[in-house]
Amino acid sequence: MKGRKSPASEATNPPKRCPSPPSWLAPHAKKEWKRAAAELHERKLLAPDTMATLESYCIAVGQVREFEETMTAEGRTVSTENGPKPHPAFRMQGNAMREARLLAAELGLTPHRRGLKGGTDEDEGDGWSADLLP
Known about the structure:
The chain has helices at residues 27-42, 51-74, 88-107, 111-116; strands at residues 77-80, 83-86. It is mainly alpha-helical. It has a domain at 50-115. A two-stranded antiparallel sheet has the order 1-2. The two termini are 25 Å apart.
């Protein structure tokens, strides 16, 4: 998923009310759903075709938090016969963070993507300098 994405566009058939989180989501995922769905609904970006992506994003964010709780309780390393090793949740958390970041970008929930709403990348120069901080 490299390259520039087009700005998020308003949904053609947005729901009238912000939908509640699915009952089967874990508690951390439900909390993220309430935050993200409200933001997407307010910006008119929430539509039936984005619901599955939102679900996946919330699951990933919930997993990141669950893995953090596990490592906080159990420690960041585990003892093995070959010495200490990173906790297995560490790798899973990294994968969930990566997935959450990619899905957040797809949904327009990252600071950069929010800045593009309604705009274009055409005014940003030669294509690479726009990525540099001022």
